[in-house]
Write the structure tokens for this entry.
Amino acid sequence: MTVDPPPERVVKDISSFKTLLEPLKETLVLLERDKIKRICIHGTVGIGKTTIMCNLYYREQVAKKFDIVIWLKVSKVESKENLSKEHLQQDIVQRLKLNIRDTRNTQEVAKKISMELEHKSYLLLLDDVKAYLDLSEIGIPESNNRSKIVLTTRQLNACAKMVDMAIQVKCLTRAEAWKMFQDVLRPTELLEDTKKKRVAEKLCKDCGGLPLVIKNVANTCKWKAKEDLWVDGLNSWRGWVKRECQGIRQLYELLKQFCYDNLDDDQCKNCFLYFALYPEDTDINKNGLLECWEANNLLFNGNNTTNGNSILDYFHELSVLEEGKSMDHVKMDKFIRQVAVYVTEDYPESRHLVKASKALKLPPDMKLWSEMNRISLGDNKLDQLPDSPHSSCRKICVWRESLICSLKI
């Protein structure tokens, strides 16, 4: 077997994490089925897809089954189509140790790759696929033997034509998340401190069962010996960032890149930021959401009005949204929502004040209103709102029972 090591794994051993182990086992079963040639492992950013692939890569039964195993980090290639093909081919050529010195173009390289793989049983692992890839153009032949392809993606619909079977990765259970958190912290023995342990448990809960987030937050705690820094992190994720805590800042920037920067256009970005107005873990009524988008002119793009359902479908494809309590509802993972909050704080035109479910008896301080574009209130004990909020706050968004009502001022 010919292999090249993939990137370092988030979790080296997932045997204690059933939520990650089950997709791995399901993939191994599918690899034994002759009719299944291409398998997709999908889920939101940071949920453990690459970790599962790494564990698949290192399985002894996989090594015995295939002549060649090839690992490609697809997201590393350039965005331009031709460069993408060329870079992917270069990686494959290196793994196959092919001589292409006299080969002039991608088509010739594709032929050499195809000839090399044609009579071998290969396993091609494609990590972080963002769009449809015509693998034949790269040189991957149609499998007429035991060869297989496994890919990971956040955009299932974009890759649907590439695969025969899809496996979804879900968030860790609370018990699994806490075990992972402790696995990172244990060498420091900080959890012997009862107060820190209590704060750590709450921090872990706020990580939303995402392994990437758990690892980064736990590593950050490991290097913060003072309890007050842990408490700051619990009270406000922005508190960590303001203290220039590099690990959390990098984590936010990574998630921002996946969840916000890579969205198709400004319209989708504005619709994404609107989710910051809803309290975390809220089941959001689709029709109510679409009405709010329309009322805020978020569906108008140039001279045309976009179908809001197409944007919702797009967010589902990216695993930014998940299914709510019914088909009429959607839900956003609380950490991805926190990324939306994080982004709005850096963009004055999208500043939001969210004070829903705070048991408020009085409206927020008027000084806060003056700096905001939208305010989300609801599930509080407010009898009335001010007659004339500050003029610079153009809209109040009142959340009630999974609905945000936008009130023009």
